[in-house]
Amino acid sequence: MTTTSSGAEPDRPTADREIVISRAIGAPRELVFEAFTQVRHLSRWWGPEGFTTTTRSFEFRVGGAWDFVMHGPDGTDYQEWITWREIVPPERIALLHGESRDDPNAFESVLAFEPAGDDTRIVMRTVFPTKELRDEAVEKYHAIEGGEQTLSNLAAYVAELTRNDTGRDEATPKGAES
Questions:
Q1: Per-residue pLDDT for 173 more than 70?
Q2: What is the DSSP code (8-state) at residue 123?
Q3: H helical segments located in the chain
Q4: How many CB atoms lie within 10 A of CB 90?
Q5: What pLDDT, in 10s, does the model give residues 32-42?
C-alpha cells in the first residue's frame, strides 16, 4: 500500500514501498525549483519543523552530491547524503537519499514541479528498497508528517521570498557554512 497525503490511488508495482506527498505552493515553478536546487535556499527551509541543516558540501549536477547534517530539535544529529540522478529544470529532480554515499537502505525520490495556475504543485514520490524500510520510515521516523512539514517550510520560505525579493540575492545562507 502506498502512503499518500494527497489521496491518490497507486497502481504501480512499487506501491507497497512508496510514499507520495504533494503540496501547492503559491509561487511560479521557476522560483520553487530554484529554492529546491540552491544551497543558500535549501539551508533555510529543508527538514521537518524544528530541524536545522548544516551543509558540508553541495554540488547540484547529475552525479553531484549534497552532504549535510540535519539537527533535530532534541539535539540529535542525522548524517544525510543526497546524490542527484536527474535534473530537468524547472520540471523534475530525481535523487538518491541516504545516510552516506554507500547506504544500502538509501531511498529514491522523484520530485515533479507542475504549474497550477499561478501556483506550483510539487509532488514528491519516494520509493524505499523494501516495504519494511518504508514502514519503518513511516512509523518510527514519521516520514509522512516530516515530508509534509518540509514542504510546508518550503511554501513559507518561498512566500517570504516573493514578499521580500532581496532574499534571492543573499550571499550567505543560514546553515550553509561548512
A1: no
A2: E
A3: 29-37, 39-45, 131-139, 143-163
A4: 18
A5: 999 999 999 99
